[in-house]
Amino acid sequence: MRWENLTDEPVDHGRARDAALFGADTVVSRTFDTPEFRGVTFHEIRARSIVNRVPGASRMPFEWTVNPYRGCTHACVYCFARNTHRYLDLDTGLGFDSQIVVKVNAPQLLRRHLASRRWHGEHIAMGTNVDCYQRAEGRYQLMPGIIQALRDYANPFSILTKGTLILRDLPLLRQAAEVTDVGISVSVGFVDQELWRTVEPGTPAPERRLDVVRALTDAGVGCGVLMAPVIPFLGDHPDQLRATVRAIAAAGATSVTPLVLHLRPGAREWFMGWLSQHHPHLVRRYERLYAEGAYAPKWYQRRVTRQVHELAEEYGIGPSRAAAHRRVPAPEAPRTPDTPTQLTLL
Question: Distance between CA 98 and CA 140 in Å, rounded?
Answer without folding.
Answer: 16
